[in-house]
Amino acid sequence: MSYGHIPVMLDEVLEYLAPRAGQKFIDCTLGGAGYTMALAEAVGGSGRVISLDLDELAIQNAASQIKSRQLSNIVLVNDSFKNLNQVISSRFPAQTKFDGIVLDLGLSSAQLDDEARGFSFKGERPLNMAFGPLSDNSTVRIVNQYPLLDLTRVFREYGEERRAYQIAKAIVSERRGKKIATTAELVAIIERVVPPRFRSKIHPATRVFQALRMETNRELEALTAVLPQAAQLLKPKGRLVVVSFHSGEDRIVKRFFKASSDLQILTKRPLTPRDSEIEANPRARSAKFRAASKI
Ligand SMILES: C[S@@+](CC[C@H](N)C(=O)[O-])C[C@H]1O[C@@H](n2cnc3c(N)ncnc32)[C@H](O)[C@@H]1O
């Protein structure tokens, strides 16, 4: 099985986490296991990497990589990082602390390309943008049942979509006749609202799809919930690294770092990928990297 994803800003993640033999790390967003495998290699057989993902396919892919590489220092957990304390306390002795914790938010390339799910507006796919069965909400429910103003808010807040109200109105009118069940049906509605002459370089459905994904998985709520848990699980001098792709996420991280008296900020401004990385992997272009160290 292939579960493709090129890890974003991996050099910077390793530079700031500076993993050494015997240390313990948490990768809150396993994805294609790029960070996890690099950390596992650095900490060696006496160290540990605990990796979480909501997506069962990410877990299965990592499990087969672990088997073929005969690794014994990675613990995989199919759960949300919003439950981090519970995940750790059910597997480690009380008061276990970690040398570093990393989050790489959003979705993986494998998820975007997965035809069984509807993260991409290309082709005809089921309207399902859940990272996994444990995700908090359902895309079909949001699109077919949210009242007009709630839909508008989601598109405006998470998608920064200028035509949020018009698109929400068109959806509400369409669903009166028939349930909206596929990505292609949704794209057709959005394309009718945004005529070609008003379109920018990005596809007119981009912002709506991003907003629906964030609402389906309640992504900002999960991030807000995990940050204090992560800070509390760090050893003194342990490091917390967050790579984000949305201004709302970056704001939450920035404010949390600033407000935490037990964290020292290591990146005054967020780092961004080098030009060479963006050239090699255009999906990295909107990444923002922030790091802090436990005092
Ligand atoms: C950008 S990918 C991570 C890529 C990874 N760093 C790598 O090197 O391949 C983000 C992953 O986080 C997962 N994810 C998103 N929200 C989550 C949550 N609340 N709990 C656990 N996993 C989550 C997604 O399912 C996805 O697999």
Give a written overview of the molecule.
With 295 residues, the chain is α/β, with parallel strands linked by helices. It has 13 helices and seven strands. The chain has two domains: 10-110 and 219-294, 3-Layer(aba) Sandwich (Rossmann fold); 137-216, Putative methyltransferase TM0872, insert domain (DNA polymerase, domain 1, Orthogonal Bundle). The chain has helices at 10-17, 34-43, 56-69, 84-89, 109-113, 139-145, 148-159, 164-177, 183-193, 206-216, 219-232, 247-259, 275-280, and strands at 24-27, 48-52, 74-77, 98-104, 234-244, 263-265, 288-294. Helix 7 (148-159) packs across helix 10 (206-216) and helix 11 (219-232) packs parallel to helix 12. It is globular and about 60 Å long. The mean pLDDT is 96. The structure holds S-adenosylmethionine. S-adenosylmethionine binds next to helix 2.
**CATH A-level architecture of the largest domain:** 3-Layer(aba) Sandwich
Tell me roughly what share of residues is in helical segments. 40-55%
Under CATH at level 1, the class of the largest domain stands as: Alpha Beta
Query: Could you say which small molecules are bound to this protein?
Result: S-adenosylmethionine
Number of strands: 7
Structural class determined from secondary elements: alpha/beta
CATH homologous superfamily title of the largest domain? Vaccinia Virus protein VP39
What is the rounded distance between the termini? Answer: 42 Å
**SSE run:** HEHEHEHEHHHHHHHEHEHE
The CATH topology of the largest domain: Rossmann fold
Mean pLDDT: 96
Using only C-alpha atoms, the radius of gyration works out to: 20 Å
Gross morphology: globular
Q: Walk across the major sheet and give the strand order.
A: 3-2-1-4-5-7-6
**Low-confidence spans: pLDDT under 50, at least 5 residues?**
none
For the record, the count of structural domains works out to 2
Task: Summarize the main sheet.
Answer: 7 strands, mixed
In percent, how much strand structure appears in the residues?
A: 5-15%
Number of helices: 13
